[in-house]
Amino acid sequence: MQRYQLSPSILAADFNRLGEQIRKIEQAGCQWLHIDVMDGTFVPSISFGMPLIKSIREESTLYFDVHLMIQDPERYIQRFKECGADMLTIHAEACSDLAFTLGVIHGKGMQTGVAINPSTPVNVLERVLDKVDMVLIMSVNPGFGGQKYIPETARKLQEMRRMLDATGNSEVLIQVDGGINEKTVDEVLEAGANIIVAGSAVFGGDIEKNIRMFQDHIDPYNSRDDR
Ligand code: DX5
Ligand code: ZN
Question: Active site annotated at which positions (predicted)?
């Protein structure tokens, strides 16, 4: 799988036509799908959970990148495995034993991600870098789609990239999530992000056209091998 990817967030999809919209994403050449699970406790809102993931898994071969915005995610790892998640991203702020929980996720055969909120410094991730496949630098406060990108994110992405390189973990992917659109995508790619999450900028308007726009920005990075 290529290192730079668009991961469309279905939070912004039309749920009345979800299957059809996921097929469009697949046909447009995407390989990842970002699935935002919210519990109403870690974040104010509630989105959807296992039954929805299980149902779309039956129709899709996309890589399911499941972003758990839930308190104490260790309670649900087995159940997300059963409904078809490929990667579970948990929040550093929501998990009391991060290293242990990441070990459990790997033990169940899924890949691991750790997310941090805009106000959380990247150094909280330092001690778990050898246990993660991806880090997620939030570029908005989690909980809702359609928010404005926080410009400070670029500096955090650069800092994260430097920390991964300095600790011998350069292969760990960096994901960015929130407010990414035609105007902000170049800045985050240049700062070191690999996996670009986008909700409203993919599902608002013509999905195929929006995906082509993102791919035009992302693809050149797959052709480079300087990072
Ligand atoms: C926000 C979610 C995001 C959201 C992004 O809490 O984690 O994945 O869907 O939506 P946009 O791209 O609209 O900011
Ligand atoms: Zn997300």
Answer: 36, 177
